[in-house]
């Protein structure tokens, strides 16, 4: 198989910028690390194969951890062997160890036979048998000398199996034992001998073969096996990335990103879409299992300033955008998470006071240090070494078992409000101490008891309950769009429900400005002028599918049918839509029903109060009646501000056409007044309201009287305007007849649902929009020019219909109506319960 047969794709957390970047960048190497959870069973491994097929090129690098809990298994073998060695002769019983080795061997054999064809399986089982013999020899021989060699089997088997499977099913591949190239000088500091390691790695990579490298293990300068510590394969992946100047590292795991707390324990944890480097480092340091403490170190090359991007993604759901780790602005810096570690020790000693504390910092990198009170928190594994180190300084030390719970976020230790909230959230737990981490990215509470799921959930709730970040994309920067943006700064400042709403995108029909770090709302339009770039729908959808917000709202203030055709894809991504655009809500029945279904299925909210009657709450009123159990049977009114103006003003003193041209001048009509006179706009509005009221009908079911005579319909705009006086006779005639009966003419929309005689439940619908003759006393006859009126009859409003009346068009009222929809959505989203849905762990 050749390189081109593997799909060439950007990492799944592609940013909008990345999409528009130079396509040559696609050929930069990417490193993909698959953790143990992603390789735990043959089903998982087949999933990994699919990911490699769709996300990798042949010159990429795969780094693997041991399958599932193999490393735990190897650790327990070592412990069992140690117990055997320490037991007296009578107590010795080799059977548990033999059984455990046999179980491990069986597990590996099962993976091999389930995945490979008989021939390939045979070869791998042969190699496995040799390894098992070696393992047994080490377990019963010079055990401690082989501690790391024993642990190394996990990654070795995993790499060998995946490589064989790739060879059999997908592409040429070779497995590389990291001990053949990765030299780490000092296991404590994990100092990589970059020059030697890079040169040796080059020798082992084979052109045209996808390299599968063992994570977790390396060698020291004498060639002895070392490990990088638990979860160390993440670190292996970033070291390898630095050796080959890779562009991206993706850590594929069983969770689709880094969450604000361990999602296995905290079901309401939120995904952190973007994690600033420093915060990610702090999370790794405080034991977040998705990020090994040192993972981030190799990502920036201080010499070349080459910067590798890091992503966390789920191998169980490869399409879902994960967490991107990097350098971000203010919005990402506001994110908070809560993490904990049990089984720690609090050590008090004079050697931890003042300047002297720096030595213990350098030597042990404790979890936290208080150099005023003289204490540190360390892991139990560090106790012995710390005691010895203090003994050599001739100081005494007192250890107490403790746990920690920490709130982590960009410079949280410098944010008084957050510290105060954290303190309040811990009131019932009564922590022994609260300590700021040295880098200020966490505040750590030291607890005398273990941190329980209940404590973690409570503290997480208090720290993150109002932290839902909402991104706002405004499409359409015309008259209303501009007014919407003008109102936005003051709305964001004064409406509580908009507290975490950020303007992140502006779109015109040709250009886009997208900024995940937020667009300054006070200069939105000038920033758009300066920085927007050409885009197409594909680029837009690609960015939207990877947006880093809890929720995203697109406000469609365009008149574009094309743009409305994207709604389906917006809904499929869970994006919410506020539409002033009438196209989608008045599209064909099949299209409209599908949109409603998609929105429901993906929990997207679709509001369009301004599609009819601008800011008047007509859609709300109909929705409310319907959802309160009422049944609407009549909707009527004057729905067009333009036609309202024309007929309220037309009294015969001036000709209809000169009135129309006057209205055109004042911007009351569309640039081509036939769009208003055709009645199509009113027809669409009636359809939208009818659907809201629960009736299923299409545009064709509504009779529409076109006020433009046929011979003027096909002309271009200029020609029509030049011949506008040909309209006059018709309207003069209509007016004269109405006047004769002391009546007037108005363009009215009417929908009536009457029970069918032949069926108990069936309704007969009649709907039309047309010029009507009305008594001068009629409610529809006395409007302020431009106003709309809506009259609703229902079971509850039968004899005396509900009437809503007021300005049905205009810059302020329409932009205001859009803001009302925005607040409405944000309020609904605030009460939406976050519930982690992760295929890997649920
Ligand atoms: N804050 C967190 N965000 C995401 N996952 C977390 C977090 N804290 C703990 N976890 C857990 O970490 C697990 C992944 O870690 P790990 O077992 O090391 O993965 P892998 O085997 O892929 O290396 C997930 O199952 C997840 O439940
Ligand atoms: N297998 C090793 C190394 C590792 O990184 O594993 P994982 O990617 O499953 O966390 C461990 O269990 O510690």
UniProtKB/TrEMBL annotation:
- Show the GO MF annotations: aspartate kinase activity; ATP binding; homoserine dehydrogenase activity; NADP binding
Task: Name all Aspartate/glutamate/uridylate kinase domain ranges.
Answer: 29-301
Keywords tagged on the record: Amino-acid biosynthesis, ATP-binding, Kinase, Methionine biosynthesis, NADP, Nucleotide-binding, Oxidoreductase, Threonine biosynthesis, Transferase
What is its pathway? Answer: Amino-acid biosynthesis; L-threonine biosynthesis; L-threonine from L-aspartate: step 3/5; Amino-acid biosynthesis; L-methionine biosynthesis via de novo pathway; L-homoserine from L-aspartate: step 1/3; Amino-acid biosynthesis; L-methionine biosynthesis via de novo pathway; L-homoserine from L-aspartate: step 3/3; Amino-acid biosynthesis; L-lysine biosynthesis via DAP pathway; (S)-tetrahydrodipicolinate from L-aspartate: step 1/4
Which positions are tagged coiled coil? none
Identify the residues that the record assigns to the Homoserine dehydrogenase catalytic domain, covering every copy.
Answer: 618-823
Q: In this protein, which residues make up the domain named Aspartate/homoserine dehydrogenase NAD-binding?
A: 476-606
**Which Gene3D superfamilies does this chain map to?**
Acetylglutamate kinase-like, Aspartokinase, catalytic domain, Dihydrodipicolinate Reductase, domain 2, NAD(P)-binding Rossmann-like Domain
* EC number of the protein: 2.7.2.4, 1.1.1.3
What cofactor does this one take?
a metal cation
The chemistry this enzyme catalyses reads:
L-homoserine + NAD(+) = L-aspartate 4-semialdehyde + NADH + H(+); L-aspartate + ATP = 4-phospho-L-aspartate + ADP; L-homoserine + NADP(+) = L-aspartate 4-semialdehyde + NADPH + H(+)
Q: Which Pfam families match?
A: AA_kinase (PF00696), Homoserine_dh (PF00742), NAD_binding_3 (PF03447)
SUPFAM superfamilies per the UniProt record, alphabetical: Carbamate kinase-like (SSF53633), Glyceraldehyde-3-phosphate dehydrogenase-like, C-terminal domain (SSF55347), NAD(P)-binding Rossmann-fold domains (SSF51735)
Self-association or partners: how does it assemble? Homotetramer.
Q: What is this protein called?
A: Bifunctional aspartokinase/homoserine dehydrogenase
Originating species: Litorilituus sediminis
């Amino acid at each position: 198989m050749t390189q081109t047969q593997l799909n060439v794709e950007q990492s799944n957390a592609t940013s909008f910028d990345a999409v528009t970047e130079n396509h040559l960048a696609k050929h930069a190497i990417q490193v993909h690390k698959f953790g143990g959870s992603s390789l735990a069973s043959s089903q998982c491994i087949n999933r990994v194969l699919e990911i490699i097929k769709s996300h990798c090129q042949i010159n990429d690098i795969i780094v693997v951890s041991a399958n599932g809990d193999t490393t735990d298994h190897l650790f327990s073998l070592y412990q069992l062997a140690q117990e055997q060695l320490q037991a007296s002769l009578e107590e010795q019983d080799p059977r548990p160890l033999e059984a455990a080795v046999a179980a491990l061997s069986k597990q590996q054999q099962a993976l091999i036979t389930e995945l490979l064809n008989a021939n390939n399986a045979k070869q791998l089982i042969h190699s496995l048998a040799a390894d098992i013999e070696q393992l047994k020899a080490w377990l019963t021989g010079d055990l401690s000398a082989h501690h790391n060699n024993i642990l190394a089997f996990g990654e070795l088997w995993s790499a060998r199996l995946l490589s064989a499977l790739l060879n059999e099913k997908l592409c040429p591949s070779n497995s590389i034992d990291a001990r053949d190239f990765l030299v780490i000088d000092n296991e404590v500091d994990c100092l990589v001998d970059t020059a030697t390691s890079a040169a040796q790695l080059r020798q082992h990579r084979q052109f045209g073969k996808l390299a599968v490298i063992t994570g977790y293990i390396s060698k020291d300068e004498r060639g002895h096996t070392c490990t990088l510590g638990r979860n160390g394969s993440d670190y292996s992946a970033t070291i390898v990335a630095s050796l080959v100047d890779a562009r991206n590292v993706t850590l594929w795991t069983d969770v689709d990103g880094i969450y604000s707390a361990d999602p296995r324990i905290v079901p309401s944890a939120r995904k952190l879409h973007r994690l600033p480097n420093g915060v990610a480092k702090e999370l790794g340091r405080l034991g977040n299992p998705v990020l090994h403490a040192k993972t981030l170190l190799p990502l920036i090359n201080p010499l070349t300033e080459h910067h590798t991007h890091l992503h966390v993604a789920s191998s169980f759901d490869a399409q879902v955008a994960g967490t991107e780790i990097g350098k971000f602005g203010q919005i990402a810096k506001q994110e908070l998470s809560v993490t904990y570690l049990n089984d720690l020790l609090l050590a008090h000693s004079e050697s931890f006071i003042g300047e002297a504390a720096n030595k213990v910092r350098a030597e042990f990198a404790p979890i936290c240090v208080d150099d005023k009170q003289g204490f540190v928190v360390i892991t139990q594994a560090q106790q012995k070494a710390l005691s010895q180190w203090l003994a050599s300084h001739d100081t005494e030390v007192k250890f107490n078992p403790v746990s920690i719970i920490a709130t982590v976020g960009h410079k949280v230790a410098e944010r008084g409000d957050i510290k105060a909230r954290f303190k309040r959230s811990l009131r019932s737990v009564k922590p022994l101490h609260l300590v700021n981490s040295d880098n200020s990215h966490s505040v750590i509470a030291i607890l005398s008891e273990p941190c329980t799921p209940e404590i973690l959930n409570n503290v997480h709730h208090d720290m993150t309950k109002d932290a839902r970040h909402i991104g706002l994309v405004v499409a359409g920067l015309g008259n209303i769009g501009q007014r919407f943006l003008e109102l936005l700064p003051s709305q964001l400042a004064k409406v509580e429900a908009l507290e975490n709403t950020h303007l992140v995108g502006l779109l015109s029909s040709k250009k886009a400005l997208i900024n995940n770090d937020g667009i300054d709302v006070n200069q939105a339009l000038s920033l758009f002028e300066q920085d927007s770039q050409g885009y197409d729908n594909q680029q837009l959808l690609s960015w939207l599918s990877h947006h880093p917000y809890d929720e995203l709202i697109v406000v469609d203030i365009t008149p574009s049918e094309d743009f409305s055709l994207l709604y389906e894809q917006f809904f499929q991504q869970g994006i919410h839509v506020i539409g002033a655009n009438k196209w989608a809500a008045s599209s064909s029945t099949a299209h409209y029903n599908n949109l409603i279904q998609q929105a429901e299925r993906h929990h997207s909210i679709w509001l369009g109060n301004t599609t009819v009657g601008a800011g008047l709450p007509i859609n709300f009123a109909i929705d409310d009646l319907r959802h309160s159990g009422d049944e609407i049977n009549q909707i009527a009114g004057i729905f067009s501000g333009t036609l309202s103006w024309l007929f309220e003003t037309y009294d015969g003193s001036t000709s209809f056409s000169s009135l129309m041209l006057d209205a055109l001048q004042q911007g009351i009509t569309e640039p081509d007044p036939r769009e208003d006179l055709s009645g199509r706009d009113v027809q669409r509005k009636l359809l939208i309201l009818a659907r809201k009221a629960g009736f299923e009908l299409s545009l064709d079911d509504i009779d529409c009287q076109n006020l433009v005579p046929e011979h003027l319909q096909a002309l271009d705009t200029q020609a029509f305007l030049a011949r506008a006086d040909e309209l006059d006779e018709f309207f003069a005639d209509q007016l004269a007849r109405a006047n004769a009966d002391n009546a007037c003419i108005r363009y009215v929309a009417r929908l009536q649902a009457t029970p069918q005689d032949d069926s108990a439940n069936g309704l007969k619908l009649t709907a039309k929009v047309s010029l009507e003759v009305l008594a001068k006393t009629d409610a529809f006859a006395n409007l302020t020019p431009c106003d709309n009126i809506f009259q609703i009859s229902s079971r509850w409003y039968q004899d005396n219909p509900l009437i809503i009346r007021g300005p049905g068009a205009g810059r302020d009222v329409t932009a205001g109506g859009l803001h009302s929809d925005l607040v409405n959505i944000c309020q609904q989203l605030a009460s939406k319960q976050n519930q982690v849905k992760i295929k890997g762990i649920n």
